[in-house]
Q: What sequence folds into this?
């Protein structure tokens, strides 16, 4: 993650930079708004953290230019207690969040970690296609877009060398799930050999991906209950943090109930990822509240959510308005947009689909016949 820090307070700028560099962030600094504008010409920043009040070129000008040249960059405003309304105005212009001076370095890190989670969620939501009625998706295109950069154990029903070329994966470990003879071959009926191969791969790496294409062959050879126990063993005893298990299965192989059972088990990580990203923030509370109550005034939302700081609530409502999750009626009441409604249904619906978050441990794709 590449971060640009902007502040005319040299001591604070140095402290922030050293603190974040120790945590392995790529950090650049600008000691004035004018220098920040120069750096913005190169672009490529994930986060810009800028002081609001600076001589000549203010943080607001830095914000406007940043959003012009790089709309997807997250901009965080540093502001004093006396300028909270200016921070809210910065939110209207496009700032993602603000931090009140003086602040502790851990507060800064917490804010950045929330951005990281939201960036990940945004990437996942762009990459993942929720499927209704168990329609298939092109997992080859998905995996190319996923940009796999981890060690990979590729287990396929076809020639794994050709599959690796199609995936554009470099030097994976490979298993040909087949009865043919050869150094890569493991017969589908030899589930214990497959288990040992996965276990060896996991113990040899700190992170990685186990991709199994052809779950239906294992089910045909061993039955659903035995394969289910195999998956439980892999997920509980073999897969460590930093590993993902990606499965494909033909939709006709399992009935809807069985597919939903797999999805329900594996969807827990997706739900956790969404919860980790958003559950500590008021915006998800606002969306959840409006999904139940349909329309509420500012006062009603403040009361129902037991919000103490009106400015903070206004901050989050402005963000949701800007991102088109909610809108304000002529009666000054807030309601969910279509986008907000879909988001409110996301966690409820995720356990009813056969796909989960690639950032977590498990991912299930349907492999439709071509």
A:
């Amino acid at each position: 993650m590449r971060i640009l820090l902007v502040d005319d307070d040299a001591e604070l700028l140095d402290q922030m930079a050293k603190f974040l560099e120790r945590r392995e962030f790529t950090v650049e600094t600008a000691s004035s708004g004018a220098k920040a504008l120069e750096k913005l010409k190169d672009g490529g920043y994930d986060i810009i953290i800028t002081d609001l009040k600076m001589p000549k070129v203010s943080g607001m000008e830095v914000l406007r230019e940043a959003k012009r040249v790089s709309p997807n960059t997250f901009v965080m405003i540093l502001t004093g207690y006396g300028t909270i309304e200016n921070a809210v105005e910065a939110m209207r212009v496009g700032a993602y969040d603000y931090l009140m001076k003086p602040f502790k370095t851990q507060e800064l890190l917490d804010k950045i970690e929330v951005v990281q989670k939201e960036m990940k969620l945004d990437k996942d939501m762009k990459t993942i296609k929720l499927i209704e009625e168990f329609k298939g998706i092109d997992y080859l295109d998905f995996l190319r877009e996923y940009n796999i950069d981890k060690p990979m154990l590729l287990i396929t029903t076809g020639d794994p060398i050709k599959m690796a070329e199609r995936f554009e994966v470099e030097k994976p470990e490979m298993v040909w799930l087949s009865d043919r003879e050869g150094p890569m071959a493991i017969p589908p009926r030899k589930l214990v050999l497959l288990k040992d191969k996965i276990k060896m791969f996991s113990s040899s790496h700190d992170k990685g991906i186990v991709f199994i294409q052809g779950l239906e062959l294992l089910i045909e050879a061993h039955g659903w209950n035995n394969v289910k126990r195999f998956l439980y063993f892999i997920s509980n005893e073999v897969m460590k943090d930093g590993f993902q298990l990606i499965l494909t299965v033909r939709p006709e192989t399992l009935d809807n109930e069985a597919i939903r059972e797999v999805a329900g088990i594996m969807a827990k990580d997706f739900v956790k990822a969404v919860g980790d990203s958003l559950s500590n923030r008021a915006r998800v509370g606002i969306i959840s509240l409006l999904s139940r109550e349909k329309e509420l005034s500012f006062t009603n939302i403040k009361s129902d959510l037991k919000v103490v700081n009106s400015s903070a609530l206004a901050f989050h409502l402005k963000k949701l308005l800007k991102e088109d999750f909610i809108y304000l009626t002529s009666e000054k009441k807030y309601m969910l947009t279509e986008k907000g409604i879909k988001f409110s249904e996301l966690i409820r619906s995720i356990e009813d689909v056969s796909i989960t978050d690639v950032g977590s441990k498990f991912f299930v794709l349907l492999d439709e016949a071509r």
